[in-house]
């Protein structure tokens, strides 16, 4: 059975208090933070039936510190892989793909 998004929220809040799921533009973001959104699914079939469904999330660590320890803690999560890094508005963005 797939884990719920609220379980993922709790897991990410253990890394930092500032965690946002698909935040609207009206929210005042506090840094450093983790922002995440649903980005797809991984499906496995057996005997013409759905055998396993795992949700895929894009998780972004945003920090002013280019050596953010938050990014080290996120990459240590199971089924997490590094996607890309970029800088925007003097903030460092570490983007990961996480299956949960």
Highlighted features:
100 residues; alpha+beta; STM4215-like; five-stranded mixed sheet; 2 helices; 16% helix
| Bulk shape | elongated
* Secondary-structure element pattern, one letter each: HEEEHEE
State the fourth-level CATH superfamily: Phage tail protein-like
- Average the pLDDT over all residues and give the rounded result: 92
Molecular structure report:
The mean pLDDT is 92. The chain has two helices and five strands. Strands 1-2-3-5-4 form a five-stranded mixed sheet. The chain is of the alpha+beta class and 100 residues long. The protein has one domain: Phage tail protein-like (STM4215-like), CATH 3.30.2000.10. It has helices at residues 5-13, 69-75; strands spanning 19-21, 33-46, 49-63, 80-88, 91-99.
Q: What's the short version?
A:
The chain is an alpha+beta fold and about 100 residues long. About 15% of the residues lie in helices and about 50% in strands.
Topology:
Layout: H1 5-13, E1 19-21, E2 33-46, E3 49-63, H2 69-75, E4 80-88, E5 91-99
Parallel strand pairs: 1-2
Antiparallel strand pairs: 2-3, 3-5, 4-5
